[in-house]
Q: What sequence folds into this?
């Protein structure tokens, strides 16, 4: 099971996104739980990004909801962590 690390930018974007789309809150919470268990689950459609986001990954949490993140190692525990960087519609995050 992976640990999720939420950046301040992610928290701010999440609050703003849920405020506009409250019906997505449950789906986002389920997606975050799934990310902890299996980041490459087919329903997440996890993929590598190119261009200015090279080295990062994105997954989907609904029709027009994307989460941008990086996969890193915790130096102290040697555990894989997911650093959540941004969330929003496709146009907002790219």
A:
């Amino acid at each position: 099971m992976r640990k999720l690390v939420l950046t301040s930018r992610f928290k701010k974007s999440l609050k703003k996104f849920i405020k506009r789309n409250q019906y997505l809150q449950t789906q986002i919470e389920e997606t975050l739980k799934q990310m902890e268990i299996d980041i490459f689950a087919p329903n997440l459609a996890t993929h590598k990004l190119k261009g200015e986001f090279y080295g990062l990954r994105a997954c989907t949490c609904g029709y027009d909801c994307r989460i941008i993140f990086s996969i890193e190692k915790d130096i102290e525990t040697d555990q894989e962590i997911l650093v959540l960087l941004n969330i929003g519609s496709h146009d907002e995050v790219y």
Remarks:
- The helical segments are 8-20, 25-37, 90-93.
